[in-house]
Structure prediction request, 95 residues.
Amino acid sequence: MSTQAPLPPEALDDWLSALATALGLDPADIPVALLLDVARDVAHGVARPAAPLSTFLVGLAAARNGGTAADIERAAALATELALTWAGDQPQAGR
Prediction:
């Protein structure tokens, strides 16, 4: 496990640019604010651990549906809508 200090908020753009480039993506195509909004809504409406997994699923769905900005926005809107209407009484696995 790394003992490195967490990334300071002001370094977020540098990190995302470096990661996007390393992954062969254009950093300008990353809707940072939109994805952070999805993560926030999921973390508050569902559970904190669901936030990073949900943003991954948004990206995966967008990529499989064409990968355009509109595809990202559509997947993010669906995730946000579901998170904002999620109730704690949803069926749980094993119940």
In short: The two ends are 34 Å apart (CA to CA). The mean pLDDT is 89. The first helix runs from residue 12 to 22.
